[in-house]
Every structure is written in C-alpha cells, then in structure tokens.
Amino acid sequence: MEPIVITSENFENEVLKSQEPILIDFWASWCGPCKMLSPLVDKIAEEGVIKVGKINVDDEMELAGEYGVASIPTLLIFKNGEVAAQSIGFKPMPALKAWVASVK
Amino acid sequence: MADIIIVGAGTAGLTAAIYAVRGGKSALVLEAVTYGGQIVNTPEIENYPGLYKVSGFDYATKLYEQAVDLGADIRFETVKRIEKDENGFKVTTDQDVHEGKAVILATGAKNRPLGVAREQELVGRGISYCATCDGMFYRGKVTAVAGGGNTAIEDAQYLADLCDKVYLIHRRDSFRADVKEVEKLKAKGNVEFVLNANVTELVGEPKLSAVRVEDKFTKEVREIPVDGLFVAIGQMPANEAFTNVALVDEKGYIVSGENCLTNTPGVFTAGDCRTKEVRQLTTAASDGAVAALAALKFIG
Predict the structure, then answer these.
(1) pLDDT in tens, A31-56
(2) Closest residue in B to A87 (Cα–Cα)
(3) CA atoms within 13 A on the CB side of B176
(4) How many domains does chain A have?
(5) Region at B64 (left for phi over 0; alpha for psi -120 to 50; beta for the rest)
(6) Is residue A99 part of a domain?
(7) What average pLDDT does this structure show over B202-221?
(8) CB-CB contact of B11 with B39 (8 Å)
(9) Is B262 within 8 Å of B246 (Cβ atoms)?
C-alpha cells in the first residue's frame, strides 16, 4: 500500500477514525535524517506491515504542534484514534520493524 | 577475507572506501546506523570545495552511491570488537565475523550530552542537539542554549530570531566562540546570558518545562522556565570498543597524527574520531584518502 499524504483536511478520517493501526511519519524536505528514514517507511507501507501516512510539518505545523512534535523525524503509531507509541530520530530497518511489531 | 575493513560510513570512511577500491583492493565498510555520519543533519553545506551549496543528505547520498558504484561493500552491522590474529584482523559485529588484512577506524563523533538525569528521555520533548533541525518547533516559545563555543552562539542567534526569549547558559564567563559573534548575540534584545552556571536538573513531565541552573560560585539555584533546551557543548568520540587495537587520549579520541596511523601496525584511523585540530568535512575526506593509501601500502 502507498503511504497516504495526511493533511488537516483528511487527518480525522484517515488517522483518528482509521479502522486499523496507522503509522504517521512527520517529516520535512530540509531534514536529512527524515530523507534517510523515508524510504524505509515507504518499504514498510509497500510490504503491508502497517498502514502508513506522512505529514509534512512545514505544511501542517498545527498538527505537529498538537501532537507535541519537537524534533523530526518523529513517528507516531495511532490506534483507535490515540497515540500508542512514539519514536524520534532515524532507526535502521530491523529496529524499525521490531518497534512496529511491538506496538501493533 | 576483505583487504581493508572500514568501521564507519561517514565522510572519512566512505572516502577511504573509494580510495581502497580504486587502489585495486576490496573494501568492506561496516556502519551501525546509516551512511553519511554527522553531515546528514546539515541542511546546506557551503564550504566544500567544488560543491557550492549542497544539502548534507544529497552530499552523503552521492558519496554513498559513488563508493558502492566503484565496488565497495557497505553493510549495516555494529562492530563489537576487533582482534589481531596471525592473518590480520578479526572483526566481530552484531551479525557476523569478518576477516581483514587492514582496518581503518572512521567511527566519527556524536553530540556530547550534558550528563543530567532524564536527558535521554526528554530528547524530542524539549531537549535537542540541533537548533537548525528542531528550532522551528519552538517558534514564539522560550528556549535555552547550553554551551559557549561557536555552535552554541550560532544556535542562540538562530533561535533568537524565532523565539520570544533565549537564555544562553554557559559554565564560564568567557567564550571559546568568536568575539564578534558573541557581540552580535549580545546585541539581540531577547537574549539573556546566564554565566558561570551549570544545568543541574531538567524539570517537566512528559515534556521539558524548566531547567534548574546552579551558579558556580554562589551555588545559588535558579529555575528558568523553558520549552526547549538546545545542548551545544561539543562532540565526543565512540572508540571504547577498540582501545585494544588503538590507543586513545583522555577524551577518547584515537591518538594519531596527520599520517592517520595508530599504535597498531595495520590499524589506521580517519576523520573526527582521531586526535586533530580541525574537524571539517574536507579534513574528514582528506583523512579517508590518507588512511586508505597507508593501508594499501601496508598490505603491499
């Protein structure tokens, strides 16, 4: 599955009302570690490990603020509309998958 | 068996790999996290000769692709230990054991933590080591910078333009940073200098809400409400696992000169992880070349 671009418009429907757990990647185009992490998150989405959404913090400062994002990349996993886990900074693939599995 | 095993895929390690494979030898690069090293955090590099204005990510990715394209074998494994044996060196990682005729340690450096309780737990919840990366999340808020070098002063300048107020907390009353830059910072209306002071406590749950600082002389403790604390007190190396093959100084840097040799024949070192005056992208690349050429000569 392709990652979904999340904005304030579709946040409620795609994230808060999601029937399944969703991993949200907060990123920005000027953030090097975000660009390192991004292909790994894409791969997880592609492999169907978990539903994935991406939030560009430059466009969605309010969403970032609302969820206390103060450093990127930040990954949040939402379950039933609530934040179930948070991961800050780059993680190599094995660690990333282990983290998702432990939460999901 | 690899000819040359390189520990670290930052600028020094990847440059060493390029020189090793172009010298006709095989190069195995072992990297614990991801390629590129510290430069990945730099939004724009403006001082690398011939590459005017390139992002740290683009630079690192090009360097990685160049090394792979030329034939370097880059694997993501954490090196646990290195032992010298009759054939060369045995390098044990979290996943495998590799043999090499020579080793280049290019382990880099990382941001030095303050060493205050709960610091790790508050990273991304008020604690940051990179003002240009995380500063924008503190727009209109109150922040503090800990440190007195050029990075700390530059961070405080950058934050002063974004934040309502910035405290500069420094353990002395003199600065390693350039006088001109300190003066520029002093001229900003929203910066308060807290000097001869150490951060002793981080307050706030689940995120940082204040720091407690202690005056070095009076021992008076003051609580400063802040949303963010940017730590800029320099770098530290990570060579603990390799001291059996490479002598380190009291700060943990591998003792070496510009020839990139260590005290063990066949073990070389490159980049920020070794004792040196200047730690720049260009000097890391330079070290990579010097170390690889020395290793090629050693193998013969």
Answers:
(1) 999 999 999 999 999 999 999 999 99
(2) B124
(3) 11
(4) 1
(5) alpha
(6) no
(7) 96
(8) yes
(9) yes
In CATH, B2-111+235-299 is 3.50.50.60: yes
Residues 6+ apart with CB under 8 A from B274: B105, B253, B254, B255, B256, B260, B287
Answer whether residue A55 is part of any domain. yes
A12: in domain = yes
In a domain, A102, yes or no: no
ipTM of the predicted structure? Answer: 0.85
What CATH number does the domain containing A14 carry?
Answer: 3.40.30.10
- Give the integer Cα–Cα distance in Å for B233 and B244: 28
* Chain B residues inside the 8 Å CB shell of A83: none
| DSSP, res B35 | T
**A interface residues, B as partner, C-beta within 8 Å:** 30-33, 35-36, 57, 64-65, 68-72, 74, 86, 88-90, 92
For residue A104, what pLDDT is reported? 82
**What is the domain partition of chain B in residue ranges?**
2-111+235-299, 127-231
Indicate yes or no: CB of B34 within 8 angstroms of CB of A32.
Answer: no
| Residue span of the structural domain in which A8 resides | 4-94
Q: Residue B244: its pLDDT value, please?
A: 98
pTM of structure: 0.89
* Cα–Cα separations (whole angstroms), residue B52 to A80, B1, B55, B170: 48, 39, 10, 34
How close does chain B come to A21, measured CA to CA in Å?
23
Domain B127-231 falls under CATH 3.30.420.380: no
Q: Which residues pair with A76 in a beta bridge?
A: A24, A86
